Amino acid sequence: MHNSNTVKTENTMAEAPSTIVGAAESDQQEQPFRLLDLPPELWSNICKLAVLSEDTIVFELAKPRSQNQIAVGQPSITQVCRLLRAEALPLFYALNVFRVQDEDDGTEASSRLQCWLRGIGLKNRGYLRKVEVFAPYDITDSKEFFAIGAEEDGNVKLELELVKLEVRPDKHGVVREERTYDVHFAEAD
């Protein structure tokens, strides 16, 4: 009898740790990580890291206008909730360098560029600090592409500078001018 108690006690002790471990694992699985429970300055820094790109963010303007809406390409973290969107989108547009590429020199080209700018919206255009535009057409006299709706906001200053001009044949052998512009947005004084 004494032996059976000893065996029983040993079995109970052998089972106890696995039961405790199982309970701890189930508690961990039931409690999701809640980013917004962190102090605001911490989740703000996390947002910054999530949206900051070391590389230039490139958007190729597609011929069908419906694809330009997809090209807006806002980070996934901005789709989580309104609070994260309000925190992360201004950082995304202000901290990154964007390159808009348009290979087409047809009459619809400028409207595709306008479509992209409308797609990101007036408020987000106000956060932009640096956009490179690669296009075979001249936009130096077309600040209205970037200032769409800016008269409603009134606090965005725009500088447009041609930084590169190349003359080379396209894929069909037609010699074309390719222009790269730097577009700087800043708050008006």
Keywords:
F-box domain-containing protein, 2 domains, disordered N terminus, 5 strands, 189 residues, five-stranded mixed β-sheet, 22% strand, alpha/beta, elongated
Plain-language structure description:
The protein folds into 2 domains: 31 residues; 147 residues, no CATH class. It is 44% helix and 22% strand. It contains 6 helices and 5 strands, in the order H-H-E-H-H-E-H-E-H-E-E. It has a 5-stranded mixed β-sheet. A hairpin with a 5-residue loop joins strand 4 and strand 5. Helix 2 crosses helix 4.
Structure described in brief:
Helices cover 44% and strands 22% of the residues.
User: Which band does the percent of strand residues land in?
Assistant: 15-25%
Number of domains: 2
Helix and strand string, N-terminal first? Answer: HHEHHEHEHEE
**What general form does the structure show?**
elongated
Helix content: 40-55%
Largest β-sheet summary: 5 strands, mixed
Structural class: alpha/beta
What is the terminal separation in angstroms?
92 Å
Low-confidence stretches: 1-16, 149-154
Question: What average pLDDT do the residues reach?
Answer: 69
What's the helix count?
6
Strand order within the widest sheet? 1-2-3-5-4
Please state the CA-atom Rg, rounded to the nearest Å. 28 Å
Q: What's the total count of β strands?
A: 5
